[in-house]
Amino acid sequence: EAALNVDRIRRDFPILDREVYGRPLVYLDNAASAQKPRQVIQAMNDVMEGCYSNVHRGVHKLSQESTDLYEGARERIAGFINADSADEIVFTRGATEAINLVANGFGQTRLQPGDEIVISWLEHHSNIVPWQLLRDRLGIEIKVVPIDEQGNFLFEDYLQLLGPRTKLVAVTHVSNALGTVTPLPEIISAAHERDVPVLVDGCQAVPHMKVDVQALGADFYAFSGHKLYGPTGIGVLYGRKDLLNSLPPYQGGGEMISSVTFERTTFKQAPHRFEAGTPAIVEAIGLGAAVDYMNALDFEALAAHEQALLTYAENRLSEIEGLTIFGQARNKAAIVSFTLDAAHPHDIGTIVDRAGVAIRAGHHCAQPIMDRYGVAATVRASFGLYNTRAEIDTLTDALHQVKELFG
Ligand code: PMP
């Protein structure tokens, strides 16, 4: 198996050449948002310089070219996650909007007071709050699958929570705060045995592993472009075609209708029924380019590279006295959350920044996880395809400096 050519990859990312406070940038905040390769930047630039126009409604040449690029991106994204058809790919603003779209649709058509949604303790706020809004509006209940001390999803507890009133399971594929990879195939099978559909928050999975929505059996799968080396402002809701077409429109407007009179409006089929208004054309095309970039990589080599970084980082960080790592799940993506006795996470973030190291400090939009471990915040280093061991060494050195300063 060929190793990932990290030197070549790094040359694709122009931002990695810059310095921060006179030091080479060490970007370890990939779980928040990843950097963009030249290929993505170029694709977006090319549209704007070469054929930019609104999509779907023009008779003119530019509109046809823009529409082809926009719909072509949808096709390639469908291929990337092995959707059965491009009609199953709805462009959204991001994962947050994708989850809200499903919550809204379920809320309008499928939920009665007393019905239940099962989520897990590992969820990002964007897969908690939309269900709470529904709960408060409709009187449904939210059941939460607990995790163990290592951050593993507790499968037996999950089975106990699935009941006759369960209408949807909404669960993350990979935790952004702990890195836990959930046992999705088993989670989905158990739900399907009870005829319960499953929505997966795949934000932190698609950058790290080959995702096949059909092999997983996911009914809905949401992710954001900007964590997949694509632009902001664009994301994806994959949904099984029959399920998507069973949901009501999310927003009303142009592009999503078949016909409109003042008396009555009929809607297009998915995905267009969910894409009201002028979409994020350039961003969708940029995400298509990001997917092309990922598709050209050997995913096994990518996973091996990132797992090696994870192990190296955990080993190096463990050398530091007073450092606690949160989340040691059996199956983990390249994310390390930790605290240091000597200093508050925000102070750590500020000091390592001076060494050129970008990491995250805070609750990572996953406050229930912080509560689970009794901390207000952690420091998080999250790795991507362009990171190296030398960068982890820089982080480790900077953490030693923090200890000297505060110790
Ligand atoms: N889910 C997870 C697991 C995430 O990490 C994030 C982003 N931090 C989101 C959902 C929300 O994504 P976005 O803000 O791009 O909509």
UniProtKB/TrEMBL annotation:
Name of the molecule in the record: Cysteine desulfurase
MF terms in GO: transaminase activity
Record lineage: Bacteria, Pseudomonadati, Pseudomonadota, Alphaproteobacteria, Rhodospirillales
Function: Catalyzes the removal of elemental sulfur atoms from cysteine to produce alanine. Seems to participate in the biosynthesis of the nitrogenase metalloclusters by providing the inorganic sulfur required for the Fe-S core formation. Catalyzes the removal of elemental sulfur and selenium atoms from L-cysteine, L-cystine, L-selenocysteine, and L-selenocystine to produce L-alanine.
Residue ranges of coiled coil: none
Recorded family membership: Belongs to the class-V pyridoxal-phosphate-dependent aminotransferase family. Csd subfamily.
Catalytic activity field: (sulfur carrier)-H + L-cysteine = (sulfur carrier)-SH + L-alanine
Keywords tagged on the record: Aminotransferase, Pyridoxal phosphate, Transferase
Aminotransferase class V domain ranges (all copies): 26-395
Entry cofactors: pyridoxal 5'-phosphate
Annotated EC: 2.8.1.7
